[in-house]
Amino acid sequence: MTAVTPAPPSTAVRPAPAGAVPPGRPAGRSRLRTLAGFAFGAALLFAVAPLVLSDFRLALLAKYLCVAMVAVGIGIAWGRGGMLTLGQGVFFGLGGYAMAMHLKLAAAGPGGMPDFMQLYGQLDELPLWWRPFASPWFALPATVLLPMAVAFGLGSLVFRRRVRGAYFAILSQALAAAMVILLIGQQGTTGGTNGLTDIKGFFGYDLYDPVNQRMVYFIIAGTLLALLALTRQLIHSRYGELLVAVRDGEERVRFLGYDPASVKLVAYVVAAGMAGLAGALFVPAVGIISPALIGIVPSIEFVIGVAVGGRATLLGPVLGAVAVAWARTALSERFPGTWTYLQGLLFVVVVAFLPGGLASLWALARRRDVAAQPLWRGRLSLGRRRAERTEVPAA
Amino acid sequence: MSIFRGRRILAGAMTLVAAAAMTACGSKTTDEGGATGVTADVSGDTVKVGLLNSLSGTMAISEVTVRDSIMLAVEEINAAGGVLGKKIQPVGEDGASDWPTFAEKAEKLISEDRVAAVFGCWTSASRKAVKPVFEKNKALLFYPVQYEGLEQSPYIFYTGATTNQQIVPGLDYLKSQGAKSVYLVGSDYVFPRTANKIIKAYAAANGMTVLGEDYAPLGSTEFGTIVNKVKSSGADAVFNTLNGDSNVAFFKEYKSAGLSAAAMPVVSVSIAEEEVKGIGTQYLEGQLTAWNYYQTTPGAANSKFVAAYKAKYGADKPTSDPMEAAYVGVHLWKAMVEKAGAFDVEKVRSASDGITFDAPEGLVTVDGKTQHIAKTARIGKIGADGLITEVWNSGKPVAPDPYLKTYPWASGLS
User: Fold this and answer.
1) Contact B279/B248 with Cβ under 8 angstroms?
2) Fewest 10 Å CB contacts: which of A204, A247, A287, B296?
3) Under an 8 A CB cutoff, do B190 and A219 touch?
4) Beta strand B87-94 with B46-53: parallel, antiparallel or unpaired?
């Protein structure tokens, strides 16, 4: 990423917003606090949640945590990199379908075919592109590498051509729509609108057994913590600072001799990999992957969770994604007829009164002086400050 | 060049996670399939049942009517003393037109509310999503909508028509009217695609030609091209498996292209009284539908049902086939429970065979083997008043055959 692309001479360098490159690195004390935060998060997810929640609620939490993984990736690409990725459903879907295809084939046994193919496809043999997924050594890496490869291909095309802002968002939406149309059209080999359902086994373990469902939950919780650790390292690295710099002043970074396209590409590919992993783990947790989960609407919902939580922070996306998913369940259970209005109201309230997201609540409570500042400046600087201070214990 | 700092933190965090994961799942994992099933809570003087319908999203307009009709049946049963002396307490959940949400809510109804049975679902995709949940928990679902067949879950009772009670009679009727060619139009999802496979197999065996087959995405309103193709094909009839809003656009386009029910009739399998109201009778008058029940179906049971429904929800509310099938489902469940003498799912299932109910559509009988019900097939013509009048019926209830095993032409289908 030190490849030098000479900036076009005509490009005016925009004035950099205040605090574009955070100078602060976590000091020794804050490292300790990070560790304490992770320990707290691990205790919450591994000890408290399984003790307090029923099997059903724990399975729901597993589903929320999968959504949170996608959110962590969006936090990097959008919060840190400024790329509004409105098509993460594609990568989530690629990971999910790769995993589901493997589990369907494993359930069908060697030489067998998934049940739906005989019903809707009337195929005599397995389609060629399904075959590699019979092997876990192919399918498992594919859940992450396939989305990353697609993101790499797409990213190298669009970032070099300096497609950004609304155009990038529209492009990612179009990709999500195209993928859904493709899946529905190929009903015989993809299951169509039904998707791949009835996933009963996970590498020899019966998913109908609550003990194994618990195991899946632990795998998901552990993966989420690992992704958070990875993300923390990433955003505190030199690369992480470069990424924020590209977000806040792309032309200026180019002028300094960096290649913003490569910097953005890395963040986009990492986010895609996280979404793919989330999709792969979603399948054993929920037992279904379908076009309804990966189209335009779910892709936007991923981003809403991140916005609600606070996009530029480490934990904000996770908190937001879990909070939105939990609110959806809780509201729809209590008010089956009117919950959509309440959910909409909640989004409006958060975006209007808490633009820094839920994660800024904590800072708001800590920094009373913010209240003394003009509202507009206070909010802006809040997000910024949160961006620098990521050593918040898990909540 | 080292990009990452503080590797030790990462290593520390990973070790912690790994250690926690190991202690957590290193214990017992039983492989013999520990699914025990959740027992319904029937300890009090009420028994809970689940209502799982989309109250929001694109399917809400149809599914809310089904929910209303289930509520009517519940009230009737409660007014008559309940089931086995217990009043029914309905628990409603919103499937939100989203298939994984259906699965989540089904699981909630079964394991949190511990309902004795669940009534609901509309689209095949939602049924496919909840099917594993019911099978895992050994709980009961009553599914009220006509569907594409080729399914037989031990934990689902199908009170709507399977293909041989709706699509095949529809084709028989067209054949008897002298139709030699058909054009297939459908929404792009599992039901139309599977239905059209069956139609093509039927056509091949009965000397009919299929002149074209087109799919529009669910919710699509662009039908200029498709209608032009239909028109230029010169087919004797059109078989329509479009769902929802698309029908509005399709029939408007159909009329403005100069096509009419007299010249090229359209047989629809997803347009009932409720949808006729939405599409507009001026576009639909004279077109055909294939169902098992119409609001106009004669009989005391139907007069009573229609009157009760209108009294509860308003005189302008029509009754339709899926609503009637949902209503029948609740009454059939009550009859099964009373025959079994218990709410226990396995006992209810084994008591189901031969249960009859004097339904608004006529006498229906449960087939315990397939868990479908024998229903009379009816072809109807849409009138100017928005109601559908029967022009043909099968004379007696047609035994369900979800895999079309008794039809030689269908041998290649499943």
Assistant:
1) yes
2) A204
3) no
4) parallel
Q: Determine, for residues B132 and A199 on separate chains, whether the beta-carbon distance falls below 8 Å.
A: yes
Query: DSSP letters of B332-378?
Result: HHHHHHHHHTS--HHHHHHH-TT-EEEETTEEEEEETTTTEEEB--E
Tell me whether B155 touches chain A (CB under 8 Å): no
Q: A367 pLDDT band (50/70/90 cuts)?
A: low
Give which of A8, A75, A3 is closest to A255, Cα–Cα.
Answer: A8
Query: Mind listing the pLDDT tens digit for each residue in B123-173?
Result: 888 999 999 999 999 999 999 999 999 899 999 999 999 999 999 999 999
Tell me if chain A has a CB within 8 Å of the CB of B20.
yes
Record: contact B193-A38, CB cut-off 8 A: no
Task: Please list every residue in chain A whose beta carbon sits closer than 8 Å to the beta carbon of residue B25.
Answer: 214-215, 218-219
Residue B342 token pair: 């218990």
Of B24, B128, B133, the CB nearest to A218: B24
- Residue B267: phi and psi, rounded to 5, are -100, 120
A288 and B92 in contact by Cβ < 8 A? no
From chain B residues 21-80, the ones with a CB under 8 A of any chain A CB are 21, 24-25, 27-35, 55-56
Classify domain B164-297+379-410 at the CATH class level. Answer: alpha beta
Chain B contact present for A27, CB below 8 A: no
- Partners of B16 on chain A (C-beta within 8 Å) are 38-39, 42
CA torsion sign for B222, B225, B231, B236 is: negative
Q: Which tokens go with A107?
A: 């359930």
Q: For A239-268, what is each residue's pLDDT tens digit?
A: 999 999 999 999 999 999 999 999 999 999
**Is B78 in contact with B90 (CB distance < 8 Å)?**
no
Pair of tokens at residue A137: 């050594």
pTM: 0.84
Tokens of B44: 């009090």
Q: What is the domain partition of chain B in residue ranges?
A: 46-161+300-375, 164-297+379-410
What is the distance between the alpha carbons of residues B295 and B305, in angstroms, rounded to a whole number?
9
Q: Specify burial of residue B363 (Cβ count, 10 A radius: 0-12, 13-18, 19+).
A: middle
ipTM over 0.95: no
For an interface test with A, give the residue of B51, B110, B190 to mutate (most A CBs within 10 A). Answer: B190
Nearest to A288 by CA among B112, B127, B141, B93: B127
Cβ–Cβ under 8 Å, residues B379 and B405: no
Other Cβ atoms less than 10 A from the Cβ of A122: the count is 12
- Look at residue A48 and give its three-state secondary structure: helix
| Residue in this structure with the two tokens 């005599």, named with its chain if needed | A124
B299 touches chain A (CB under 8 A): no
Q: Do domains B46-161+300-375 and B164-297+379-410 have the same CATH topology?
A: yes
Cα angle for residues A154, A159, A161 (degrees, 5° grid): 105
DSSP A225-240: HHHHHHHHHHHTSHHH
